[in-house]
């Protein structure tokens, strides 16, 4: 298992560190390669809506092996995955979900919520970078 408890703890710390640097409270979730929950954290006074969104972001990123922003584009009217979320209500089309890859294979997904789209994505990219450094 790549997403050990220790690795998850380090990813939580990275998410918290970056969110503090930006100056926002976030919710953070990690799922395994099948989209099953590994970790959920709500830091400070993170938006209540983020509590339900971030596990879905982590799930979506893991099972689609794409960012949730990319899935949203592919799910738009007339796009190849149009209405995918109607077939699986756990699919979340809100930016802030990123897949985690190790050795070219999906290892899991993360979800960040609580800030703007740009802030959530900045934090997620920092966490992905941390994960890549841990698994190299």
Describe the structure.
The chain is of the alpha+beta class. The chain has a single domain (about 5-105, about 115-135), classed as 2-Layer Sandwich (Beta-Lactamase), CATH 3.30.450.150. Helix content is about 50%, strand content about 20%. It contains five helices and four strands, in the order H-E-E-H-H-H-E-E-H. It has helices spanning about 5-20, 50-65, 70-75, 85, 115-135, and strands at about 25-30, 35-40, 95-100, 105-115. A hairpin with a 4-residue loop joins strand 1 (about 25-30) and strand 2 (about 35-40). The longest helix is centred in the C-terminal third of the chain and has 19 residues, at about 115-135. The chain is globular. The chain starts with a helix and ends with a helix.
Give descriptors for this structure.
136 residues; 48% helix; 5 helices
Task: Put the structure in a nutshell.
With 136 residues, this protein is of the alpha+beta class.
Give the arrangement of secondary structure elements.
Layout: H1 5-22, E1 27-32, E2 37-42, H2 48-64, H3 68-74, H4 84-87, E3 97-102, E4 105-113, H5 117-135
Antiparallel strand pairs: 1-2, 1-4, 3-4
Helix pairs in contact: 1-5
Provide the residue-averaged pLDDT: 94
Q: Largest beta sheet, briefly?
A: 4 strands, antiparallel
Distance between the termini: 15 Å
- Put simply, the count of helices is 5
Number of domains: 1
**Secondary-structure class:** alpha+beta
Write down the secondary-structure element order.
Answer: HEEHHHEEH
CATH architecture: 2-Layer Sandwich
CATH class: Alpha Beta
Strand order of the largest sheet: 2-1-4-3
Which of globular, elongated, flat, extended, rod-shaped describes the shape? globular
User: Would you give the CATH topology?
Assistant: Beta-Lactamase
Beta-strand percent range? 15-25%
Share of helix, binned? 40-55%
Tell me the number of strands.
4
């Amino acid at each position: 298992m790549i997403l050990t408890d220790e690795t998850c703890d380090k990813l939580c710390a990275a998410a918290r560190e970056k969110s503090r640097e930006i100056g926002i409270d976030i919710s953070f979730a990690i799922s395994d390669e099948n989209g099953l929950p590994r970790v959920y954290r709500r830091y400070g006074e993170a938006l209540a809506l983020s509590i339900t969104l971030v596990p879905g972001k982590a799930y979506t990123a893991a099972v689609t092996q794409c960012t949730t922003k990319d899935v949203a584009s592919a799910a738009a009217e007339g796009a190849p995955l149009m209405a995918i979320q109607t077939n699986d209500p756990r699919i979340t089309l809100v930016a802030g979900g990123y897949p985690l890859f190790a050795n070219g294979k999906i290892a899991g997904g993360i979800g960040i919520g609580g800030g703007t789209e740009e802030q959530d994505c900045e934090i997620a990219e920092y966490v992905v970078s941390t994960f890549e450094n841990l698994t190299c």
